[in-house]
Amino acid sequence: MEGGGVHWVHLICGVLLVCLSISSLVNAEDPYRFYTWTVTYGTLSVSGSPQQVILINGKFPGPQLDVVTNDNIILNLYNKLDEPFLLTWNGIKQRKNSWQDGVLGTNCPIPPNSNYTYKFQPKDQVGTFTYFPSTLMHKAAGGYGALNIYARPRIPVPYPYPDGDFTLLIGDWYKTNHKVLQQSLDTGKVFPLPDALLINGQTYSSFSGDQGKTYMFRISNVGLSTSINFRIQGHKMKLVEMEGSHTLQNFYDSLDIHVGQSASVLVTLDQSPKDYYIVASTRFSKRLLNTSSVLHYTNSHTPVSGPLPAGPTLEKFWSMRQARTFRWNLTANAARPNPQGSYHYGRIIPSRTIVLANSAPFINGKQRYAVNRVSYVNADTPLKLADYFNIPGVYSVNTIQSEPTEGPASVATSVMLATHHEFIEFVFQNNEKEIQSWHFSGYDFWVVGYGNGMWSTATRRSYNLRDTLTRHTVQVTTKMVLWAKHLR
């Protein structure tokens, strides 16, 4: 369920917020970058034995997109699979063209032996992001990659430019074919435990740097269902950015990064010249999985040795306390003059409160996942198209409530309505045993609080209304509540 193992998070775990006001396109004068990608199957020994994977231009993971904020991306994608396919650009706000988000609520899937051209602009965004398949279980076979957005030369970043830049795509991996996993879920079976963790699609890799220099590590959790803890043996990590938000620059020995999340840290190679472990391990899992890479000092003649440095395993309160230390850097990149996108979110009164509670009911003999007792099913027509062209009968705005109620669960193409620029308070209630990742596709939100038990209006007194981060994906641990304010 976490991170949308079957990509329900792109519809807010079954809830699509439809903006009834469609922004018109604006002719841009920023630079254009053109790409042509071909998606195919391939066979690789990813975790010890050959298996089918999804390649983009023959690569797993797919090509790394390194762009500059406000660049216009024109990407023509050819689907050579035997199934419809879509890519979503995780965390990109789609400010100028929301029709390119790459989820079934917005786009039709690309049929086999067909192509589609994505046109989008990461406007006013700087940071570490990813892309991945949003249909079926394609993400279990690959098809994901890095999307790094750099600042324009005239826009300063709140740290010295690093001497190098490393991207680490970390995620759980399954030896089972993605079609078999899909069939298993379709029959109502529980999603299995992963078989391995990978870093950049491998069980072993290395990164080299010069002693005394500082390097940026861009870390993303591209898995399906598993949170990770990341650490570098003998080195402190200075957190500088999370999903496009510059952070207060605290130092960490290790970081929890949940499914769909990304972070950037600066690491100075200030230790004795030898090799050190880079480690990722699973969190809150029944079986502990580790994967490691090597940080190699270029003047090192000593290989890594000893056991892998240990990290936290089941300590959910530790993870929640760490998440509360992630704060916005209010002195970086001046705020906009209007409340939208500014540091004044705490002064805005929400128009309403929506409480979303997840559950795992059995419906017609099959286990499904639901929000406020409604298990979402995709319509044949993308909801955005149905809304734009006023096509009746595609979805209903009356099947899901804005707060949980008692009763049996049902199946529906459920939609909640919101108006353009509406400021909404969301409460995410996790009633299950597994941690959940909630993602707002094409949007971000302020994570103003975490806590235990049930939410009440008195809880608002504990909100961080000054310097919490804006994020596109946030974790909610078991039996906990997360409160988020959302502006768009």
TrEMBL record:
Put simply, this protein is called Plastocyanin-like domain-containing protein
A Pfam family: Cu-oxidase_2
What family name appears in the similarity comment?
Answer: Belongs to the multicopper oxidase family.
Query: Which keywords does the record carry?
Result: Signal
As given in the record, the signal peptide range reads 1-28
Q: Which InterPro entries match?
A: Cu-oxidase-like_N (IPR011707), Cu-oxidase_2nd (IPR001117), Cu-oxidase_C (IPR011706), Cu-oxidase_fam (IPR045087), Cupredoxin (IPR008972), CuRO_1_AAO-like (IPR034273)
| Species of provenance | Aquilegia coerulea
UniProt GO MF annotations: copper ion binding; oxidoreductase activity
Task: Write down the SUPFAM superfamilies for this protein, in alphabetical order.
Answer: Cupredoxins
Domain (Plastocyanin-like) spans 39-152, 165-299, 380-478
